[in-house]
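Deliverable D5.2: sample structural annotation.
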Amino acid sequence: MPSRVRSQRVEAIVLRHTDWGEADRLLWLFTREIGKVKVVAKGVRKPRSRKAGHLEPFTRVELLLAYGRDLPIVTQAEAKETYLELREDLVRVGYASYIIELLDRFTYEEGENFALYRLLSETLSRINMEKDTAFAVRYYEVRLLDLVGFRPQLLHCVNCGEEIQAKDQFFSFEKGGVICPNCGTKEAGVRPVSMPALKILRHFQRSNYAEAQRARLSSAVDRELENLMGQYLTYLLERGLNTPSFLRRVRRTAETVDE
């Protein structure tokens, strides 16, 4: 931030926070204007703080940031979207936590990325309002990979280059894409991927969300894609994710209640 700029108004989504000092909090934000940034919210843990309710995770908020020698300081905060439906459902909270953890792990404090901000904001809205939250999350995974530079090759075999045919295939995390049956039987470290699952991935890659919704995501294909993408994302990040285990627990609990 140039030294002459003393303050800036931004729109942001609160990713996470941690207590700092006696009454302050450190916030990690993903902003529309400057990408990911860490800021300080002074006095926000005091009982009478007016900003506290506007700075919770999963909140889309408009902020005024003041710049000095250290971290930016939140001087004004006004929540624009709190996603109330999401907060009342632990499964939705689990999905929201998952998409935020993915974005947090794949990004650094490296400047504006409006496409990523829009994807995050729109996916939170979908998780908040739509019945099929898993569909929105599977779409998010595919589009996120595009935007962070890890778009998998789904049309041609990443080993021999031959066009992928309409039958079950293999997927290589190391090579970043689909491997045909001829190569897959000789390739180490690959895993099978069904043609219905591959069709969904291809459809998501080339479609906006309205177009993507024309496809039907069966529960079996959703489970397959959840496992495949979860393993691929973990491979790319070179470390495990925290939220999937929480999400699995709350879904099991919800299924038990529904029985």
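Annotation notes: The domain at 85-258 is CATH 1.20.1440.120 (de novo design (two linked rop proteins)). The longest strand covers residues 7-20.
The annotation will be released with the project's public dataset once the embargo ends.
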